[in-house]
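Reading group handout, session on sequence-to-structure problems. Before we discuss, look at one worked example. The prompt was deliberately terse, the way you'd type it at a terminal:

> structure 3-hydroxyacyl-[acyl-carrier-protein] dehydratase FabZ

The input record follows.
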Amino acid sequence: MANEKGDIIEVMNILPHRYPFLLVDKILEVLPGQKAVGIKNVTINEPFFQGHFPGRPIMPGVLLLEAMAQVGAVAILMDERFKGKLPMFAGIDAARFRKPVLPGDQVVFEVELLKIKGSLGKAKGFGKVSGEVVVEAEMLFALA
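And the output record:
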């Protein structure tokens, strides 16, 4: 899928996540073991909007981080060295939420894998809506 468009079926063939926790709708670009770019289309139909917040729906920051991590997981799992592994969060550093993400927004996540040593790794990513950064973080992960 390097530099090809990955639709939701392809995403589901790579990631183990499923509804309601699959938070990537499309992969725009992937360089296995290096980086990935993916999209999350945010709709009012998301189950978390029922309680976050009634009358003022805002996508929870922790789910923005999860979506970003899932995009990074595509870059990991497309690398032949890590086929069959399960990337899991081991830590989050320098997370910043710049603007709220609302129903109707399309978040474009870009995640770069900085280092993978043994079963541990580090990535840096950000998400943008209409060209503006809404979230950024460094993520530590373990490969199970």
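Points for discussion. First: The CA atoms of residues 99 and 140 lie 23 Å apart. Second: The chain has one domain: 8-143.
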